[in-house]
Every structure is written in C-alpha cells, then in structure tokens.
Amino acid sequence: MTESELPVIEMHPYRWGDPDRPMPLPELARAALAQLGATPPAAPVDPAEMPLPEIALPADARAAIEAAVGAEHVSTSHEDRVRHTRGCSTPDLLRLRAGDAADAPDAVVFPGSHDEVLALLAACSAHRAAVVPHGGGTSVVGGLAPAREGFAGVVAVDLRRLDQLVAVDPESRTATLQAGVRGPRAERLLADHGLTLGHFPQSYEGAAIGGYAATRSSGQSSAGYGRFDEMVVGLTLATPRGTLDLGSAPKSAAGPDLRQLVLGSEGVFGVITAVTVRVRPRPEKRLFEGWRFASFEAGAAALRRLAQDGPLPTVVRLSDEAETAVNLADPSGESESRDREGGEDDGSAIAGGCLAICGYEGAATEVTARRAAAAAVLAGARGELLGPEPGEAWRAGRFRAPYLRDPLLDAGALVEALETATFWSNLGRLRHAVTEALTGALAAQGTPAVVLCHISHVYETGASLYFTVVCAQAPDPVAQWRAAKAAANQAIGDAGATITHHHAVGIDHREGYAREVGPLAIEALRAVKRTLDPEGICNPGVLVG
Amino acid sequence: MTESELPVIEMHPYRWGDPDRPMPLPELARAALAQLGATPPAAPVDPAEMPLPEIALPADARAAIEAAVGAEHVSTSHEDRVRHTRGCSTPDLLRLRAGDAADAPDAVVFPGSHDEVLALLAACSAHRAAVVPHGGGTSVVGGLAPAREGFAGVVAVDLRRLDQLVAVDPESRTATLQAGVRGPRAERLLADHGLTLGHFPQSYEGAAIGGYAATRSSGQSSAGYGRFDEMVVGLTLATPRGTLDLGSAPKSAAGPDLRQLVLGSEGVFGVITAVTVRVRPRPEKRLFEGWRFASFEAGAAALRRLAQDGPLPTVVRLSDEAETAVNLADPSGESESRDREGGEDDGSAIAGGCLAICGYEGAATEVTARRAAAAAVLAGARGELLGPEPGEAWRAGRFRAPYLRDPLLDAGALVEALETATFWSNLGRLRHAVTEALTGALAAQGTPAVVLCHISHVYETGASLYFTVVCAQAPDPVAQWRAAKAAANQAIGDAGATITHHHAVGIDHREGYAREVGPLAIEALRAVKRTLDPEGICNPGVLVG
C-alpha cells in the first residue's frame, strides 16, 4: 500500500487511530513488560463520561465568533471539546485516560476560509479569547494546550474545512494546499496530477499541512524529499493584525527569509491557512532493504559517508543495538517479517549488531543507479546486506508504532519518545548522555527502563537521534515521565544539541528552547508576536511562553 | 588558477581592483559604445582631493569608541573615510567619480574581537552614533550608506581584523570563520585542511564572510555548493543588547529558524562576527563546457530539467541571445577565447542562439558520471555541445566583469546590473517585462540601451534572472539610472517576483522589498530591530527604513 492509499485517521482523545480496531500487544512485548514489572493500571475513563471544565467563554465572545464563521461552525459539544483536548504525547494520553480534561477548549470553531480565520482572530482578539490552531491534533509537545489564565476562554480552531488543493503549477513543480489538508488527502490530491509531496512523518495519517509547517515537521523520507521546511516555498498566515503572504521566489536575498520565521512558529503568531510546497513526480519505483552493521558507531559512520559524499537513499535510518534487538521501532512489521521467515533465524541474523534501513524512490533507472552506488558505499563501510525483507517490513509497519503505544499503556507500560539532533562529531557523546540521563532518572524512581535509539534524518553536517523509552508505570506516571524528560532535556542542552529535531517546542520544550537560543532571541520572538498578535491570544504559553 | 590562488583585492573608492592595473576596453565594446552615442565624460575626481563632510562625531563619542577598541584602531583619515564611502553600485561609483562623498563615515573603526564589537555597539548606542558593518565594501544596493539624520555621526566598522579560521570540524564538515575573512583567504585557510567553501560570487575577490551572510549572497557554483544561506549552520551576532549565538544542529524544529532571520539582516540587527559553515573536500576534478541552445526558452527548459530531475552541474548558467552575442557577461574571457580560436568562427558557432555554461567539480569519478548524465539530459533537450572552450573561457574570466565597468564608465557608458528570481512558469514573462521596462525607461531618456540577461542560479521550482544594461550616460547618469531601475523594480513587483535574488535590499530595494513582503512583515522586522537595537543605531535606513 502506498502512502496515498492510506486513510486519514481521526484521533480518538487518547488512542491513536480507530479504537474499534485495537492493536494487540505482541507476545514479545508482553514478556518484556512483565520483566520490567509493569502491571495493568485502572481502565481509562470513558471520554463520553469525562468531566469537562465549565465553558468560560462569555456570550458576547461566542456571538462574535459565530458572526465570524457562522453559528453552525461553532461547537461546544462534549465530544468536540474532548477531542480537541491536548495532543498525543504520552502524558497527554495518560492525563485523559485518568479523566483529566482540564485543558479542554471552551469551544471548537471550524472556519471555512482564510478570511473567516482573519475574522475569527479579530473577534478573539477583541474578546481576549485564546486561540489554538488544530490540524490533526498530533502534537507530542503540548502545543495544543495554551495558557488559559487571563483569557476569556480557549477556542480550538479546527482547520478541517480548509481541505483543498488550491493550485498546482506543474512547470514549477509547486502546489498550494490549504492548511487543514491531512497527509493522505494531500497525497491523493497530488496523485491526481501525477505528483507527490513525499512528506511522511509518523503522524502522517492524522497530521495536517498547516501543522507540518507550524512545527517544522520532518518525514521518514527526508533524505530524499527534504524536511517540510525545505519543501515550503510560500506561506499564508492569518494574524490578528492581518495577513502575511510570503514567498515570491524559490530563494531570495530580499531580507531575512520570513517563511523561516513562520515555519516553526507553532501558532503563536497566528494561523497558517495555506502552504505552497515544492512537489515531485510520483515515484515509478521503490526499493527498500536492510543492512547490518557491527555497531552503532560503524553504522553511523556509513550513514555519514552517504550524507556527505552521496548518494543519499530516499529513506535512511539506523537502529542502535538495543532497538535492533527489541525491534520496538517497528514491532508489527518486524514481527510479521519474523513470522514469515521462521522466527529465530531472522532475528539472530542481526543479533548483536545494528539494523539500517535504506529506501530508494524515484524514476526506475535512477533508483537502480542510486541504489547500486549507495550499496557500494555501505558495503565499503563494512555493512552487510540483509536484502529487501527488513526494508519492506519496515515500510509496511512504519506508521504503526504509535498504535502500539495504546496496548502498552493498557498493560501498565510507560512508553514515550523524544528526539534531538547534533553535528556528527558530537553524535556518539549525545547518544550516551541522553541514554544515561533517561535510564538514570527512571532507575532512580524504581522503574528501570529500556532505552532504544535510532538515527532517522541525516545531513552533511550531522544527524538526528530518536529515543524510545519503555518502563513500568509508576503510581504517578505523568510525574515519572516528567522527571525522566527533564533529565534528558538537561543532557541535550549540556551537549549543545537542539532540544528537538522534528517534534517542535510546544510547552514541553519551552525551557530547553529558551536555553538553546538564549534570552535575547526569545525577546525578539516575543516582539514579533506583539506586533502580529498585540492581545497575545495566539496559542499563549506555547513556544515563547 | 583556482579560486584559492586569487589575491584578496582591496576596493579603490570607485574602481574595482587594483587601479594601477586597469583593464583596457575591448575594441568590440568601444565600437558598440560609439553606436550607442557614448562620449567620455569629465575625468573622475581624485579620491585624495575629494571634499569630505566635516566630522560630526562628538569628542565624547569618539573617546567611548576608542575605549571600546583602542585608539589605534579608530581612524578619521581622509583615505579611510573615502574608502568606506558607499559600495560598488554604478550610482555609488558615479557619485564618487563626480566628487560626491557626502556619505563618508565620520570614523572607521577596526575592532579585533567579538567582545570589542559588543563594546563598540554599546558605546555607539550610548552616544547615538550610527554603525555600518564593512566587510569587503562590495554592496551594490546602497547597504553601506546608512541614514545620518538624527545621529551623532556614522561609524564604519571595518571587520578586517576578524580574519581567522576559528575552528574546523572535519568529521562534521563544518568550519567557523570570523566575519572579516575575505573570499580568497577563506579558501586558502580551508585549503590547508583539504576543504573548500565553494562560494564564489562575482564579488569573491573582495567580499567577506560576514557580508555573504548579511546579504544572502549566492555564488556562481550555487547549483553544486548551494547558496551561502544554505551553507550556514551557525551564526554569532553582536547586537547593542548582547550576543545572539545560533545553530545547535544542522536542522531543528525548535521554533523559527533564527539563523534565517539573521541571514539577510544587512547589519540592521547588529554585526555578524562569526559564521559556521558547511564545508566540502576540495574538488579533485573540474570540467567546464559550453552548450548552445536555439533559444533562451529552449535553454531554460533544459536547465529546468536538470534542476528538477537532475543531475545538477556545479555551475549552470544560460545567457540569452543578446548576452550570447555581445558576450558582455565575460568579455575578457570570451575575447581571449575568440582570439585563440581565430575570432569570427567561434563567435558564429553560437550566433543566433544561446550559450549555456555547465561546470562540474568534485571527486574524479563522480564528476565524470555526473557530467555524462547531465550531458545526456542537455543533448536530449536539443542542446549542442560546444566543448570545453567556452566553459574554460567563462571560468577564466568569471570574476572580471566588474573590472570592465571602470573603462566603460570612463568611456561614457552607463553600465549596471540587476537581478531577480521567480518560479519557472513565470520566468519568460518576467524576463520580457523587465527587459521592456529597462529599454523603455532608457529610450524615453534618449539613451537607447542594450539589455542582456542570463540565468545563473536554478532551483527545482524556479530560477534567477540577471540583467546587464548598457547605454550612453545622460548628463545626470545617476538620475538616468534611477529612472530605469525604478521601472525595472516596478516590473519585478508587478510580475510577483522577488526584488533581489542575491544582491540584497540595502537602500535601493527598500520600496520593492516593502511591497514584496507587505507592511506587516516590515513591522515585525522593525520590532525585532527595536528589541536588539533599541537606539536604532545599526545601519539605519537600510532594509526596513
């Protein structure tokens, strides 16, 4: 199944995907959890029964909002409010599971055009209602839970009605998509023109174009198609003060690149309503395969060679020894693969080493040539070709990891991920520091953890690191994770790395972000915010506090 | 001669390069100028005799500046003041030739460290002295002539003492260079480590690293090495409020990319003191060759294929019919080539068509393979291979065009260049609109012009256009050009293109820039400026007015 054939998923308040089709917990995981001491917690609270805060939004504010978008596009229903409560981080899910919907918005608004968003922002400014843009709702950094204090209420702006492909320029290979278009729909709309965006983050099935832009998303095919911020050639931002319409050329020397100021702005300057992106022809051919390296260091060195001297695969990733062994990065895909191969044999083929996945997409002859050249580099770097099986298994299961989190939480596991990036010469040190911080902080709480790591995005000058953490839930799992996360953030900052490579800042990374860029940069961003959003209603508390 | 072997040139106040080695005017140009009606104007005023404005800077301000950098690093000499008067646009040269040095700074300061720049900015803030950062002095957009009104004086901050390679990270392939390092020196410093930056704008021999960053420079090898803004992974900016130190990772999702806010800021937020750039191994092999296309449209279509489907040469450019015929883009190189080839023959080989130059640099086998693949694309797009001669001629003469301007001005020609960029589908329209605007505006003044155009930077979604204009000087050539430039700017704005692809905004493009990004964006930038530079002393009047 190609990406454009996947359905758009609507997020359950605290489950990923369709709760009527739950993913079973693999036996291997069940055994591992028992060893970690995980025991099933109380069953989660039914969303329909969840207590919600009183609606704070005054009647005149609601009237103004209704005037902006039409009364039929303003909801205060229990279901809509619960569905728009926070995002999809593990703490977000844990809190909702426990029945804590304190961050529920007072209203959910569904504007139908850029002009309606402008009018909505003006109305909310006038009535000091906080506004949180809502695309797919897949934030994992607290980006959907704005501050409430000092505001007349919180309004979630659900962009699902902004779901059109506005323009295609096949000669320039650009397409303009409204911000509410979800990943699979974007691919289907573009496929009608023989085009693809090529942006496949793990949140792909749920996340929306505007969210990709607002959070500087990076997809699994970033080596081939680039990060989302690299794809963007134009942006339309609705602010309380009016519209910013940016992007007169692919590149320009006309002042700072203001597109790069809106990318990553996480709703604090306004609401992105449309994005013009570079698109590419749909690939004729796809080829995914696995490689084994004796160690993470050897694999990282091989990936560095590809990133620096080429050729780059479209997808390139490397699991460390622990992740390779556990296969948690892709439990369903990998376990299917194992079943097909007869279990132990396939597992032992990469036991003690590190699995790398390389995928190639494009025109048929180009894929063949690029794959051959990359394979020569990998073999030269002492990689052992495992053939297409691990690659195809990864590809088949690559959007499934978030689904697995639900049965893990059900079983009493605490499972969460975090990520960072640094320059190549700092990568090994960073991995060890973060791993130690996480294992140390969780062991100190009496819940020894398994920490897995992979590289999933490479650049000429460095790479990302993605950590997955599993341990038994403590009695207060939110506080438990907060301590571990704080230790990891500290280690990342101490190592001089970035607090996030592709998850954004939200609320969870605010301190680390301030440390990373320094107080003067935060002041400058706040000055921009005051200019565009004088009342401070746009996603208050996020990014710049 | 490779780039690292070229000497750093110090700009004469109104001549490019060493005035003791003037470039003679080619005979062909002399004949063309006669046809355009150019007659030699009065001889330029001797810089040593040029009247300068009284030094406005009060004694206490000078004392504070001397305290910041040392008295021996503050100059008010006639020569230093003239040398730091404006930049290298044709109007800049024309005004100095006519003896107008009204924009001369009151003092030229030579700080020796980042901390000294910080202290200097604090001193200038305290005394309300305007500050203009000065690297190589090669601005062609008025970026070196800040507003004077309301300030106690204007201080040029010459960064030549910040000329060190601070750090090299061969594993990450990054290098940190101080802002005052000039192009050839950067290449020599990196060559000692087997590395190259690969950034070769036409100002290469004079311009400095900080200026590349402040103006979003783009070099002739941008197809292979990227634009300067794409090379930057870290930046240090000294502001009146303190230091911004940016770049914790190659890429990040931690908020807006603030590096991209400093890149292109043209000194209005402060002074860039160091830049960390991506570097590459020095190329083993270089191969340059020429191609002929029947028309500009056919050539542009071929370049678009390379940019969109690859492979990209390291250098790729296409002259239009007029530029190909006149060969003004590279008069010295091309005329040498003609001489070697026997004159008319080589000229007629591309008569009636358009010359493209493709250059390939890198590892030997990679260059061979990439060249073969690109050649197949170009031949498939009905390009006719002209062999290495035109390519090598271009390479030999590529930094010489600015030298030719001096004898042209001496001979009574008005010669100037401007550039823009747009998406592929708009390129033909833009070229015609700008050409008509220029020829129309100059014909209306009784000075019919020759307008030449080339593409020199290509992207997947679009390309740049560079226009060279030659006509006879009118009695007031500055006003004459101003009218032509205004018409071109209007046409660029009307076409929805960017006001500048690689020359920056300065003062000359301020209106076009404001139109391009809109008033709200300008307000946001001014808010950033107020935060970092509360007294507004940093290059006032530039970029955001």
Summed up, the helix count of chain A is 21
Q: Cα distance, first to last residue of chain A?
A: 42 Å
Tell how many strands the DSSP assignment of chain A holds: 18
Radius of gyration of chain A, in angstroms, nearest whole number: 23 Å
Oligomeric state of the chains present here: homodimer
Largest β-sheet summary of chain A: 7 strands, antiparallel
Q: How do the strands line up in the largest sheet of chain A?
A: 15-12-14-13-17-18-16
* Average pLDDT number of chain A: 94
Can you tell me the residue ranges of chain A where pLDDT is under 50 for at least 5 consecutive residues? Answer: 328-349
Largest interface: A-B, 87 and 87 residues
Portion of residues in beta strands of chain A equals 15-25%
Q: Into which percent range does the helicity of residues of chain A fall?
A: 25-40%
Shape of chain A: globular
- Structural class of chain A, please? alpha+beta
